[in-house]
Design a protein that fits this description.
By secondary structure, this protein is an alpha+beta fold. The chain folds into two domains: 2-110, Phosphorylase Kinase, domain 1 (2-Layer Sandwich); 121-359, Aminoglycoside phosphotransferase (APH), C-terminal lobe (Aminoglycoside 3'-phosphotransferase, Chain: A, domain 2), CATH 3.90.1200.10. The chain has helices at residues 2-5, 55-71, 79-82, 121-137, 156-169, 179-187, 193-200, 241-252, 270-287, 290-316, 329-359, and strands spanning 12-18, 26-33, 39-47, 86-87, 96-98, 101-107, 112-113, 207-209, 218-221, 227-230, 237-239. Bound molecules: 2-acetamido-2-deoxy-1-O-phosphono-alpha-D-glucopyranose and magnesium ion (MG).
Length: 361
């Protein structure tokens, strides 16, 4: 590991320790010491090349978006703390390849905290407001110029086809244990085309989307508690604004763990939903079209369903994509997601009312 860090800096390495709990990349905190004795930290990541085969385009997307945000920053923002910054290697590259593995370094934004589970509705409001601001700031960025680093990432129809394929192939010989979950995924396929069809027909605009809009991808300032910086920009791609809203509700709307075993607990918390809708629409109302606002009603169901499909597909494929800490974790992730979709189906009219109320339209 030390030799890799050495490609990015000549400063003395004090320690390298694992950090974060993402399912995809491996992340390390690297403590360094400058010649004058002062110490600082940077982040080093090994990019998961299985998930992201096109590292060059991925880094290009991140650099275009962060560069644009840095150039369009408001006066009260700190360029080193409000936007992620890539640290180029000593030879000037945005990443380095060693023996078929890809590494990058990022500026460590100190004195921040992240949350995996929403602790209070205000956190969710702040989180949604931060993602809405991200969309708003990038509203004039030419989204079509970004590469689709994971092709069809939020194409739920294709996710469904892949799910069916994993059921038919049944490579891990697990399909017989999960017939109920498979059936539920089939029954909810009506959701698959609800957003993709609107994008295809040009009824909603193509925007710069984060595509992993979870609470734990926002750094909050430790002192003020305010959202500071959006991280994990690997999946920044062109898409629909509502994908990010849907993902926030998926990951934070129940207020429970992604693999909660007590499914009784997994239902949409309306107070949290209201906070998220209010937070997003605080600036979302300024730039969203009427047609887009309508997609915000269904997106929580579509994106939660899409992740249920992905978790079950991975379970059936032998857990090759998402990291797992115990044997059936992907199955439990799928179950919580199916339960949440089922619950949201009942609450749809109320969800619609709340979205329109905060959008003011
Ligand atoms: C992955 O690694 P993490 O937790 O940021 C995944 C998301 C899923 C999420 C589910 C590139 O994100 O799409 O919604 O797990 N990222 C990728 O927890 O597939
Ligand atoms: Mg992440």
């Amino acid at each position: 590991m030390k030799n890799i860090v050495g490609l990015f800096t000549n400063d003395k390495i004090i320690s390298i320790s694992p950090m974060g709990n993402g399912h995809i990349n491996s992340t390390y905190r690297v403590s360094l010491e400058e010649e004058n004795g002062s110490q600082y930290n940077i982040i080093m990541q090994k990019i998961n090349n299985y998930v992201f085969p096109d590292v060059a385009n991925l880094m290009q997307n991140i650099c275009s978006v962060t560069g644009y945000l840095q150039n369009n920053m408001s006066a009260d923002e700190d360029i080193h703390r409000s936007v992620l910054s890539v640290i180029p290697s000593l030879s000037g590259k945005m990443y380095e390849e060693i023996d078929g593995s890809y590494y990058r370094c990022l500026v460590m934004i100190e004195d921040t905290i992240t949350y995996d589970i929403i602790e209070k509705p205000q956190d969710f409001y702040n989180c949604a407001a931060a993602f809405a601001e991200f969309h708003k700031k990038l509203a004039d960025f030419p989204a079509h110029t970004l590469a689709e680093t994971i092709v069809n990432f939020h194409n739920t129809e294709i996710r469904y086809e892949n799910f069916l394929k994993s059921v038919n192939e049944d490579v891990a010989r697990r399909a017989k244990n999960v017939t109920e979950e498979i059936q539920q995924c089939i029954d909810k396929n009506y959701l698959s085309s609800r957003i993709t069809s609107k994008l295809k027909r040009g009824q909603i605009p193509l925007r710069v989307v984060h595509n992993d809009a979870k609470l734990n991808n926002i750094l909050f300032d430790k002192d003020t508690g305010k959202p500071l910086c959006i991280v994990d920009l690997d999946t920044v791609m062109p898409g629909a604004a509502c994908y990010d809203f849907g993902d926030m509700i998926r990951s934070g709307g129940a207020g429970t763990a992604e693999d909660e075993h007590n499914l009784e607990k997994v239902c949409l918390n309306m107070e949290l939903f209201r906070s998220c809708a209010a937070g997003y629409m605080s600036s979302g109302k300024d730039f969203l079209t009427d047609e887009e606002i309508e997609t915000f009603v269904i997106a929580p169901l579509v994106i939660t369903y899409e992740n249920a499909l992905r978790f079950l597909t991975d379970y059936l494929s032998g857990d090759v994509y998402f990291g797992i800490k115990y044997a059936d974790q992907n199955l439990w992730r799928c179950r919580t997601h199916l339960k949440l979709v089922e619950d949201m189906e009942k609450r749809l009219p109320q969800m619609r009312e709340i979205i329109h109320m905060f959008a003011g339209r």
